[in-house]
Design a protein that fits this description.
The structure is a homodimer. The first copy, chain A, has about 240 residues and is of the alpha+beta class. Chain A has 8 helices and 11 strands. Chain A is elongated and about 55 Å long. The interface between A and B is large, with 50 and 50 residues. The structure holds a DNA duplex (30 and 30 nucleotides).
Chain lengths: ~240, ~240
DNA sequence: CATAGAGTTTGATCTGGGTCAAGGTTGTTG
DNA sequence: CAACAACCTTGACCCAGATCAAACTCTATG
């Protein structure tokens, strides 16, 4: 599962640090992009775009992280994706966003005028190839997450989430290493399709069972990696097929 | 929501009826594809590929429908996508499938040797553009489905499913029109993250409430479209943002 | 047209996780 | 450093949907 944390070896030569766009750092393309771009920042918690808003720009996250989510009329909300540096908001061919985009941390965006960006996509082949690859990656991650949302128990959901957080920090994973939860209990709940109380209870249980140890609310250590893996409900080998 | 039923106006000139591949029906490209392709059929219920199997071929569905699903060790299964004519099994850059692919009806596939297909994708720009568009469409559909799996009640899930089935048949939807459920109760359950008993009960309730009328197990009519829409839990206007 | 078997419905009961409510921590601001 | 506001934990209770079980209804097949 690489829902959250794709390999993101942004190109250092490129001012917008965009693998999709600057995979080969062609100077002409960069020049075009240079002329198009503008920056904008958002504070933690701020809504970047509401579902249905017109997309005048295609943006890419330069720094920080944001969530894609949908809220039903009565307030139930489900996070359907996370945006990290190099991810796009908006995509060629779409005039409006389908989900609310909210800043999880302070966020800096690099924006391009949509029409110009679309022209670039249709003119420069390797850009659509990169967008294709990104979309396919996110598609499998989303499907993987559908299994979690549809069929996993609360404990399995939490264990899977913890494993995902840990995998971001260090691969290969080993025990007795220090990690930090990137979200509040409520955000975790909206991500996993649970309530914040259930998240809290399940984390307490993992602590009681000697799987995790907490130092404060967000900082933790894995005491029993095998037990954690076991609790995810995934295949024993934890195989991530890519 | 167009998870199941994308617009699929396959090009009639192209023998493989593939919008992604033959969007402009370039004769040379078609000739290349002609030479590559082979056909294979599967019977209803047959497994087309198991998760983890090597993908020697990229296939496209020519006729019939198939499901993408994952089954946990104890037998819980979640359907994460449906494949209809023009959809692909396998994608450029992936050596193995991440989900089980099962024939829902009898299925005919048109297969291409993977390496050759990948070459075509990187050589012919408009192919990666089409694959990109398809992947982006499926990505939003998958995310939409994540909201359903994570946050909707059984009744809302069923109502959303019925509305989706109906939207495939006729747009605009109107009442007193005849429709057919494409799956068994168990398949619906695995699609919605429910048990088959709950699916059956909720369908009975919709019948009792005068929303639907059944003729046999699979054939039904909508008696109260407004009530159905209302039961989906989606925004009143039922807006599908694309 | 009898029979089998898959698919479905319905009932009875159980339970995981939601809801409501009360405190407890941590960290921030005047 | 007091006091407030987020954030988190824990308890008590409840209910939607799961589970277990039985019977019903198609459809297919010999």
């Amino acid at each position: 599962m690489n829902f959250v944390f794709n390999e993101r070896d942004g190109c250092s030569k490129c001012p917008i640090r965009h693998r999709a766009v600057c995979a080969r750092c062609d100077e002409d393309e960069l020049a075009i992009l240079e002329g198009m771009k503008s920056y904008r920042t958002f504070e933690q918690g701020e809504t970047i775009i509401w579902r249905g808003d017109d997309l005048h720009h295609i943006s890419s996250v330069v720094a920080g992280s944001a969530s894609l989510s949908r809220t039903l009329e009565d307030g139930r909300t489900q996070v359907v994706g996370l945006l990290l540096p190099s991810d796009f908001i908006g995509s060629p061919g779409r005039k409006a966003v389908e989900f609310d985009v909210t800043a999880i941390t302070d966020v800096t965006l690099c924006r391009f005028e949509r029409k110009a960006f679309e022209r670039l996509v249709s003119d420069v082949p390797h850009i659509s190839q990169r967008v294709m690859e990104m979309a396919l990656d996110e598609l499998s991650a989303a499907r993987e997450w559908m299994v979690l949302l549809g069929r996993k128990t609360a404990r399995e959901k939490i264990a899977t989430f913890i494993e995902m957080v840990v995998r971001r920090d260090t691969a290969p994973i080993h025990q007795d290493q220090h990690h930090t939860l990137p979200f509040t209990r409520e955000e975790i709940a909206n991500f996993l399709g649970l309530t914040l109380e259930t998240v809290s209870r399940q984390l307490s249980l993992l602590k009681k069972d000697g799987v995790l140890a907490f130092v404060g609310r967000r900082e933790f250590t894995i005491l029993d990696l095998a037990a954690l893996r076991d609790a995810t409900g995934d295949d024993a080998d934890g195989s991530v097929i890519v």
